[in-house]
């Protein structure tokens, strides 16, 4: 075998290996990398020179559009859905797309950012909707707008996403617990009154004891008067006869 043939064989093998690597890279899954920074209250986004939204990683410490340095947030959840554009796909927007512009095919993942504020997921080719979830314990009271990513992104195997939402540290705390139901008001029972005849009105005395004796005396007196009247009447009748 001549040197030229050996060189030709080497070039063919090298070309095949190169094409294999290129094809593998072309058909490999894309990796979505979500990095969560909390904007300061009143900020609406990153500083102007950092707001690229091109899928590239921000290497320096991000600043918001008010000039405040940002810190990463852990424990922020993201729901990822695989979607299909409706119609010709012209209504599907990259940020906060209208629900009529897509159909949800399935929920792909429920991600949570780690201590570095990062959550990642490998996805195949297609459209994906990413929804941030509020977290009152972290001061995240209003979630970032939903995002749509079409994979693969040209020239990128790793696509960096920076959801933008404000964090109010003064309102950071556990979620409000429901107030316990108030206990029913207990009406105290009136204490039983003691029978004290000396402090009662005569007409309301029970017919026992002093009241009964007085009543019997009254009846006897009335009966005595009736007997006297009857005797006087009989005596007058006898005198007339």
From TrEMBL:
Annotated segments matching region Disordered: 167-198
Superkingdom of the source species: Bacteria
Pro residues bias locations: 175-185
Regions that span the bilayer: 210-230
Keywords: Membrane, Transmembrane, Transmembrane helix
Domain called Gram-positive pilin subunit D1 N-terminal: residue spans: 49-164
Pfam families documented for this protein: GramPos_pilinD1
Protein name: Pilin N-terminal domain-containing protein
């Amino acid at each position: 075998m001549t040197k030229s043939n050996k060189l030709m064989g080497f070039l063919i093998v090298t070309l095949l290996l190169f094409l294999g690597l290129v094809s593998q890279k072309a058909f490999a899954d894309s990796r979505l990398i979500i990095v969560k920074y909390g904007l300061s209250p009143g900020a609406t986004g990153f500083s102007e020179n950092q707001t690229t939204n091109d899928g590239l990683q921000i290497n320096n410490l991000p600043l918001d559009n008010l000039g405040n340095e940002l810190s990463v947030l852990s424990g922020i959840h993201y729901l990822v859905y695989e979607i299909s554009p409706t119609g010709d796909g012209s209504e599907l927007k990259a940020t906060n797309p209208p629900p009529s512009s897509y159909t949800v095919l399935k929920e792909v993942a429920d991600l949570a950012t780690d201590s570095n504020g990062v959550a990642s997921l490998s996805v195949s080719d297609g459209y994906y909707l990413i929804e941030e979830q509020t977290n009152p314990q972290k001061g995240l009271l209003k979630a970032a707008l939903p995002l749509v990513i079409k994979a693969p992104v040209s020239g990128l195997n790793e696509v960096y996403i920076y959801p933008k939402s404000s964090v109010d540290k003064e309102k950071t705390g556990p979620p409000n617990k429901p107030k316990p139901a108030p206990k029913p008001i207990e009406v105290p029972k009136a204490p039983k009154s003691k029978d004290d005849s000396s402090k009662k009105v005569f007409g309301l005395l029970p017919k026992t004891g002093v009241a009964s004796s007085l009543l019997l005396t009254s009846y006897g007196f009335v009966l005595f008067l009736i007997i006297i009247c009857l005797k006087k009447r009989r005596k007058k009748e006898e005198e007339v006869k």
